[in-house]
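Hello forum,

I keep getting stuck at the same step: I have a sequence, I want structure tokens, and every attempt I make locally crashes halfway through. Rather than fight my setup again tonight, could one of you with a working pipeline run this one for me? It's a single chain of 341 residues.
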Amino acid sequence: MEQKKGKATVQFARPPVIAGAASVAGKKESGGPLGPFFDRHLLDDGKEKENWEQAESAMQKEAAELAIEKAGLDREDIRYLFAGDLLGQLIATSFGTVDLEIPLFGLYGACSTMGEAMSLGAMMVNAGYADHVVSMASSHFATAEKQFRFPLAYGNQRPMSASWTVTGCGAVVIGRQGESGLAKITAVTTGKMVDIGARDSMNMGAAMAPAAFHTIEQNLEDLGKDETWYDQIITGDLGEIGSRILLDLMKEKGRDLSRLHMDCGVEIFNKETQDTHAGGSGCGCAAVTLCAAVLPKLQEGLWKRVLFVPTGALLSTVSYNEGQTIPGIAHGVVIEHMEGD
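Reply #2:
Ran it on my machine without issues. Output:
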């Protein structure tokens, strides 16, 4: 079977399975619509650590260990770890996973990192280079605000286009075809950078929406399908504004996603009561929503097939302060129900 499809998609001859998944979410996130479905809830977003970065690292370790446990495995059974966060030099990941003693591929795809991690992990298992890997991503409101915007004590005003960085970590264990699991990964579509010239770091949904559009279109073209092949097309953190832009772009292409589209950044908070403006964002946004709300529906067969498309805005404090634009990227992962496998 030829596994390369079109320009950017791999359709697996031996679809890996998601053998276990775990979500750890912050206090605000736990008070939102998805709160009852998270595995662990933080009563203190600081996790009684000396600083916010240490707290995010602790979330990563907790999520990884819980996912491995839920998969019925031990640390020694995991060949590789694919993980990342939003911080410079991936300090949440590097400090958080050191005690796991699992060989690490540290990844940075901004808020698209969970899609990147799952894509690479599935490729590794499908190719036979590993029996089990962990794919994981995290973010923390306080660490992201400190790095990308202003110290929290500054108390700056947030425009309505701004998103709220999710405090959370999601982790999945990916295993070989034939094992029991929650769902299977049948294909991945790797996104490319799309730069429309956006410069507003407080409106990242607008910067990322064209990248999501490109990846979705590429996936459908490569696989020779239309949007109705999926029960849901799930973006990472476009929020309210980015989601509207995506739907408009798809409509111009003759595709109607109005009944198929779900955005993790829209779903994770209650717009009316939680004052998160455009919605949620951050590496942890798509990761925890996948583990808590998407995989259970696939496992139960409520959805047969979804396209999971985490989205990222590839900016840094350096590039922003130099006046550079904000390119976007999105990675697609096709996840299916395992009935009859």
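The chain is about 35% helix and 20% strand. If your local run keeps crashing, start a new thread with the error log.
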